[in-house]
Amino acid sequence: MQFSPIIKTAQQINYDAESFLSTYHPSLFIPIPIEDIIELQMKMDIISIPGLKDSFEKMGLEIDAFISSDLKSISVDRYIYENRLNRYRFSLAHEIGHKILHEYLYVQFKFNVRDQWIKVLNQIPISERQIVEWQADEFAGLVLVPRLVLKNEYEIAIKEAETILKKSFEDNQSLVENIVIEYLLTEKFNVSKYVIRRRLENDQLI
Ligand SMILES: [Zn+2]
């Protein structure tokens, strides 16, 4: 078994994310409809599985979802699927990141159910795993929160937050930032505040 991921910079991953979006969602309207892209355009199956996350947790792994080695279906924990929209969307985008970035690694395996995936996971050194996971997370952030859209929406959200605060006679820069990140941008992009914060930091907007 050969598992040596190609090292990529954030800039290279952004290029992959932008070309993904220009193929599947060129309007860049937000929230990025990642579930529809996967099911309707890429014709992949999304399968929700009860207790998936818990069974990984027992092994000390934090896994909400995984993509089959033929890259045709994504299995997602049912609780996340039904109750945690933002996290579900990020998990989908992350798994698509594996499809786009790591096909050359996945083709050598054969798994589509949890136990097969666990066997494969155990064969991969943790340092290599961290590289591919970082790349997929980066891809997911850049797909759900595209650079150009973020810059625009950030500027709009700051003005909105300042207007809200003026009405309550508050003048506090960190409060503006909190409103922008925790409410306005989170709701517009349908991602968690952690994803928004990380994207803003990476694009050096904050
Ligand atoms: Zn992953």
Written account of the structure:
It is a single chain. This protein is mainly alpha-helical and 206 residues long. The protein folds into 2 domains: 10-144, Arc Repressor Mutant, subunit A (Orthogonal Bundle); 148-202. The protein is 65% helix and 6% strand. It has 10 helices and 3 strands, in the order H-H-E-H-E-E-H-H-H-H-H-H-H. The protein has a 3-stranded mixed β-sheet with strand order 1-3-2. A hairpin with a 5-residue loop joins strand 2 (65-67) and strand 3 (73-77). The longest helix is centred in the middle third of the chain and has 22 residues, at 85-106. The chain is elongated. The chain starts with 9 loop residues before the first helix and ends with a helix. The relative contact order is 0.14. Bound molecules: zinc ion (ZN). Residues 94, 98, 133, 136 line the site of zinc ion.
Produce a short descriptive summary.
With 206 residues, this protein is mainly alpha-helical. It has helices spanning 10-24, 34-41, 52-57, 78-83, 85-106, 114-123, 126-144, 147-167, 173-189, 193-202; strands at residues 45-49, 65-67, 73-77. It has a 3-stranded mixed sheet with strand order 1-3-2.
The residue fraction in helices comes out at: 55-70%
Report the strand count: 3
Ions, cofactors and other bound molecules: zinc ion
Share of residues in strands = 5-15%
Structural class: mainly alpha
Report on the biggest sheet: 3 strands, mixed
Q: Find the CATH topology of the largest domain.
A: Arc Repressor Mutant, subunit A
Report the C-alpha radius of gyration, rounded.
Answer: 18 Å
Give the low-pLDDT segments.
Answer: none
Q: Domains counted in the coordinates: how many? A: 2
Q: What is the spatial order of strands in the main beta sheet?
A: 1-3-2
Overall geometry comes to: elongated
The CATH architecture designation of the largest domain is Orthogonal Bundle
